[in-house]
Structure formats: C-alpha cells, structure tokens
UniProtKB/TrEMBL annotation:
PANTHER family: MANNITOL DEHYDROGENASE 2-RELATED, MANNITOL DEHYDROGENASE DSF1-RELATED. Its EC number is 1.1.1.17. This is Mannitol-1-phosphate 5-dehydrogenase. Residues 33-255 form the Mannitol dehydrogenase N-terminal domain. It comes from Sinomonas flava.
C-alpha cells in the first residue's frame, strides 16, 4: 500500500511538459474499515503511514474527514487519496507514496460519516483533532459529529467499535471517552449507555515530528518525483506509536510497522508528553521571546537548552520505569530536535498554551512539590508562556488559545496579580498556593532576550 522512490524519475520534470497529477490510475484503493476525523499533516505521516506499512494493508482503507474546512479533502480526493510522504533526515529526503487513505471527505459531510459508521465493516475511528477540541461540546465539533455517527451505528445494529485518540492529550483514551459520553448524554441518556457498552476507547502515545507543508515542499516533490502532488507531507524519519486497549471489531497489524501494544500506557505517555512536548513548549515560548523561529534554532541557544535540560532533569525523576530508557530517549530527542532540515516553527507549537501546559508542565511541577522540591524548571516554562502571551498582547501579535479572551483580560492586570490570574488559566489548583505564585512571578522575564 505504499511505494518508495528515493531518486527522481527522469522525464517530464526536465522537459518542461506538464507533470501528471498523482493518482491511482485504476488500481483500487483498499476497502474502508477505518474512519479518521482530522485530516491534517500528522494523521498522514503517522496513522495512515502505519496502516500502509501493516502486513495486511490491502484489507484496511481509511476514510479521512477534515475538521473545519473541506480544502484538504478536495485536494487529496483529486489525487484519489494518494500523497507523498517526504521523510526528511539530516542527510537528505526519501519519497514514498502512501496509499492507505481510500477516501478524503469534507468533515461537513455527516451523511457519509453516518453511513460509514453504520456499517459493521467499519472497525475503528481514529482522531487527530487537536487538544482543545476535547473541551468543545457543540454538535458541529468533530466529537459532536462522531457522537451522532455512533447513534447511527447503534440504530443500525452495526456492533462494537474502537475509538483511538491520537492527539497529544494526557490520558487521551479516557479524555475521549469522557467527552463522547458527555456529548451523548446531552442527546439521549440511552446513547451514553450504549457507548459505554459498545465503544472501546484506546489510549495512545503518538510520535512523529510533522511540521506544516510549505510551497517549497510541493515544488521539491514535483522536481524530484516527476509527478504533481498538491498535498505532500514532510516528517522526520523517526515514528513511534504505543497503544493500549481493545479493538472489538479488529485492527490492522500495526505491530508489523513498529507499533507497540502495552497494558499500561501512562508511563510512556508521560515520557513523551513531558520530555518531547514539554521541551517543545518551553522552546516555543522562550525561543520566540529570544528571537528564534524554529526548534533547531532555539535548541542552539544555550539559555534555551539549559532551561530545557533542567526541565528534563525534573521530569526524569518521575519517569522511573526501566523500560522507558530515559537517558537514551533524551539523547535521541536532542538529535531529532537538532535536525537542521526540519523547519518546525515555534509559532505552530505555541498555539493553545493553556491546554498544552496543563499536560506538559503542571504535572511535573506538582510531582516535584509532592517530593518536597520547588519544580523551578517547570515553573520557568509557565513563566515563559506568561511572558510570551503578555508580549503578544502588548505588540498586538496574534496568538491562538481557547482561553484567549481570559488571557487578554489577565494580561491587563499588573505584577503578581497578572501572574496569579494567568496561572489560574493553566493550573487553577495552584492559584491559592502563594509560594508557587511568588516563584513563577519571580521567574517572569528570566528567559527573555537580555
Ligand atoms: N504535527 C505533529 O508533529 C504531531 C505529532 C504528534 C501528535 N500530533 C497531534 O495531532 C494533532 C493534529 O496535528 P496536525 O499537525 O495534523 O495539525 P493540522 O493542523 O494539520 O490538522 C489538524 C486537524 O484538526 C482539525 N481541527 C483543528 N482544530 C479544530 C477545531 N477547532 N474544530 C474542528 N476541527 C479542528 C483541522 O481541521 C485538521 O483537520 C495535534 O494537535 C496533536 O495533538 C501532532
Ligand atoms: O502538535 P501539538 O500542537 O500538540 O504540539 C506541537 C508539537 O510539540 C508536537 O506536534 C510534536 O512535534 C509531536 O508531538 C511530535 O510527535
């Protein structure tokens, strides 16, 4: 279900003739047995790639729905769901056509979603809808649409199904279950009961750095591959997927592609959310305050790197399972972050800070406190976020956050009151802890450019 090319086919790209658009050319797509919500870059570099690399890939096609706009589906549908994965290593690019997406669908097409979820052959729903969406209850959110689709499945008697959250959310299986049941209860109480009995919520830790595709990436694929692909995806060579939970209607043999199935996901999830994503958030806020644009640039700044390693030292004390191999994991992260050919923009990582810091910094701060230490490095990450939102607000620079209005109101306050109000948006449980507020307040400004 995937085809690799590492060198440019010769011909059209060099003769100036129009390049053919990527397409299946009559070769059938695999049958749809997986529905995905959130057709973005990461879904295509990760779950779709793992599915294409499973030994039974020919039996598992994905119908992938966009979240907000139809655009990504329109572009991909014109290519029969095919796209190029550009695996960008430090020493060069490898190109691979991924064929597991059988259908690319506008998220607004709820009739198609309900139709697929009503079919017993649909066994899995995967999600990459971003962290903030799990807090949205409106009927037109991706989870609202999923709940209506599950109601259609119940009515059709199509049987059990697995929902697999692949978002960077702590306890993503439980969080997805709570959100789905909350929305279902608002529709009809019986539906929430059906969901609890028939839907398995699988927890995952997902990892593959996948920055946004640029026009230069589109041009590179055309030049190197000899076809036109309007929607390639660029990712690092590294890919990791750890899952825990039941698949009552079956699943692809993702383990053949390197996925790992475990009984207890939490230690793996914490390792990834704290060490990788926590470091990313720290670099995103401190790095931008210090004038950097990408992860690799921020990492090369000794102040940022020292703050990141201090945070890792704190987090590592709470990652005690030997299988986590934390020293090797940290070394691998340094190599991955330093990849000079992956332009991972700090502005993209910085979005939705309140939701992200709650999972990336606050648990480490609380764990350090519980052990009688100050958690100064985790506190510094929160202080850097406060400086970042205050600087954005005062310069009029746009930033994205589900609590943006509350952030803007808080930055209107002065001094320690401002620190306390902002902390309340990230960690309400800590605002009455005066030493914590004082510590974070004292750290404000410590990572801005001197
Ligand atoms: N990019 C990565 O490196 C990476 C790695 C691991 C995990 N993830 C997880 O995957 C998620 C998606 O990342 P991506 O790079 O594919 O992003 P993306 O912007 O390419 O895609 C996000 C998808 O979610 C939808 N969406 C976002 N906000 C929405 C909203 N408010 N309502 C409805 N739909 C909405 C978008 O329409 C899009 O389909 C991340 O938030 C993260 O949790 C990403
Ligand atoms: O995708 P987000 O917005 O949750 O977080 C930004 C990055 O930290 C994240 O995308 C990482 O690159 C990714 O989690 C690596 O697997």
């Amino acid at each position: 279900m995937s085809e690799k090319t590492s060198a440019a086919p010769q011909g059209a790209a060099q003769t100036g003739e129009p390049l053919p658009l990527l397409g299946r050319k009559g070769v059938p797509a695999p049958p749809v047995r997986i529905v995905h919500l959130g057709l973005g870059a990461f879904h295509r570099s990760h779950q779709a790639w793992f599915t294409a690399h499973a030994s039974d890939a020919a039996e598992w096609g994905i119908a992938s729905f966009t979240g907000r706009r139809p655009d990504a589906a329109v572009t991909l549908a014109a290519q029969d769901g095919l796209y190029t994965l550009v695996e960008r290593g430090g020493d060069g690019d490898r190109f691979e056509v991924v064929g597991s997406i059988a259908e690319a669908v506008d998220g607004g097409d709820v009739a198609r979603l309900n139709g697929l979820l009503s079919s017993p052959s649909t066994a899995i729903v995967t999600l990459t809808v971003t962290e903030a969406v799990y807090e949205k209850d409106d009927a037109d959110s991706p989870l609202g649409r999923l709940v209506r689709g599950l109601a259609a499945r119940r009515d059709a008697g199509a049987g059990p199904i697995a929902v697999v959250s692949c978002d960077n959310v702590a306890g993503n299986g439980e969080v997805a279950e709570a959100a789905v049941c909350r929305i279902a209860e608002g529709i009809d109480v019986g539906l929430a009961g059906w969901v609890r009995e028939h839907v398995s919520f699988v927890g995952t830790s997902v990892d593959r750095i996948t920055p946004r595709t640029t026009p230069e990436d589109v041009a590179e694929v055309a030049a190197q591959c000899g076809y036109r692909d309007e929607s390639p995806v660029v990712a690092e060579p590294f890919a990791n997927w750890i899952l825990s939970g039941e698949f009552p209607a079956g699943r692809p043999r993702w383990e053949d592609a390197g996925a790992q199935f475990v009984d207890d996901i939490e230690p793996f999830e914490n390792r990834k959310l704290w060490l990788l994503n926590g470091a990313h958030s720290l670099l995103a806020y401190a790095g931008q305050l210090r004038g950097h644009a990408t992860v690799a640039e921020a990492l090369a700044d000794p102040e940022c790197r020292q703050a990141m390693e201090a945070f890792w030292d704190e987090a590592e004390r709470h990652l005690t399972l030997p299988e986590l191999s934390v020293p090797a994991y940290r070394q691998a992260l340094l190599d991955r972050f330093a990849n000079p050919r992956i332009a991972h923009h700090l502005a993209q990582i910085a979005a939705d800070g309140t939701t992200k810091l709650r999972m990336r910094a606050v648990p480490v701060l609380i764990a350090e406190h519980a052990d009688g230490r100050s958690g100064v490095a985790a506190a510094r990450m929160i202080a850097a976020w406060m400086d970042f939102v205050a600087a954005s607000a005062s310069s009029g620079a746009d930033f994205q956050d589900p609590l943006k209005e509350q952030i803007l109101a808080a930055v209107g306050l002065e001094g320690r009151d401002r620190t306390a109000a902002l902390l309340g948006l990230v960690a309400p449980e800590l605002v009455d802890d005066s030493p914590v507020v004082d510590r974070i307040d004292a750290l404000r400004g410590s990572l801005t450019r001197s």
